TrEMBL record:
<keyword id="KW-0496">Mitochondrion</keyword>
<dbReference type="GO" id="GO:0031966">
    <property type="term" value="C:mitochondrial membrane"/>
</dbReference>
<feature type="transmembrane region" description="Helical">
    <location>
        <begin position="51"/>
        <end position="72"/>
    </location>
</feature>
<keyword id="KW-1133">Transmembrane helix</keyword>
<feature type="transmembrane region" description="Helical">
    <location>
        <begin position="132"/>
        <end position="154"/>
    </location>
</feature>
<keyword id="KW-0520">NAD</keyword>
<comment type="similarity">
    <text>Belongs to the complex I subunit 6 family.</text>
</comment>
<keyword id="KW-0472">Membrane</keyword>
<keyword id="KW-0679">Respiratory chain</keyword>
<protein>
    <recommendedName>
        <fullName>NADH-ubiquinone oxidoreductase chain 6</fullName>
        <ecNumber>7.1.1.2</ecNumber>
    </recommendedName>
</protein>
<dbReference type="GO" id="GO:0008137">
    <property type="term" value="F:NADH dehydrogenase (ubiquinone) activity"/>
</dbReference>
<dbReference type="InterPro" id="IPR050269">
    <property type="entry name" value="ComplexI_Subunit6"/>
</dbReference>
<keyword id="KW-0249">Electron transport</keyword>
<keyword id="KW-0813">Transport</keyword>
<keyword id="KW-1278">Translocase</keyword>
<keyword id="KW-0812">Transmembrane</keyword>
<feature type="transmembrane region" description="Helical">
    <location>
        <begin position="84"/>
        <end position="103"/>
    </location>
</feature>
Length: 166
């Protein structure tokens, strides 16, 4: 449970950090970190990492397409990081695990009844398609379909979003 709360906190912090970034490559790096954290979180929830691995490969493919697109548009921009960003990131990274270790109370049960039933459910590879996770599976499927449509729209040849290589 501690791993779940730490990963969800890092996801939240990375989401707030993404809103402050201005350079396209730093936004891409933030998206990559976000996708790694989402895959780790889904792996810890499912107790099985094969779905997380597949999801990460799909995210990575989309990020590579975005990286090609961004690097062709913003190839000469300088990448500057403020020293305060480094100090703030290091401070947050060091204090969050300490706070969670200090505040962890074994008597408090943060897991809902549905997740306890899910862990006790004796299905191994079909766990993502059971009735308790139907809505999450449907959301992930529709999200991946939307990402596929966006990537296909961006990379149309007739609208030529990328610079032509001569």
């Amino acid at each position: 449970m501690l791993m779940y709360s730490i990963l969800s906190t890092f996801l939240l912090l990375n989401s707030f950090l993404f809103m402050t970034l201005t350079h396209p490559l730093s936004m891409g790096m933030s998206l990559m970190i976000q996708s790694i954290l989402i895959c780790l979180l889904s792996g810890t929830l499912f107790l099985n990492y094969w779905f997380s691995y597949t999801l990460f490969l799909i995210f990575l493919g989309g990020l590579l397409v975005l990286f090609i697109y961004i690097s062709s548009l913003a190839s000469n921009e300088m990448f500057n990081i403020s020293p305060w960003m480094w100090i703030g990131g290091a401070a947050i990274s060091m204090t969050l695990p300490c706070i969670y270790l200090y505040l962890e109370n074994p008597s408090s049960n943060l897991m809902s009844h549905d997740w306890v039933c899910l862990i006790n459910y004796k299905m191994f590879l079909v766990k993502i398609y059971n009735p308790l996770l139907f809505q999450m599976s449907l959301f992930l499927i529709s999200y991946l379909l939307l990402c596929l449509l966006v990537v296909v729209n961006i990379t149309k040849f007739d609208s030529s979003p990328l610079r032509l290589q001569k």
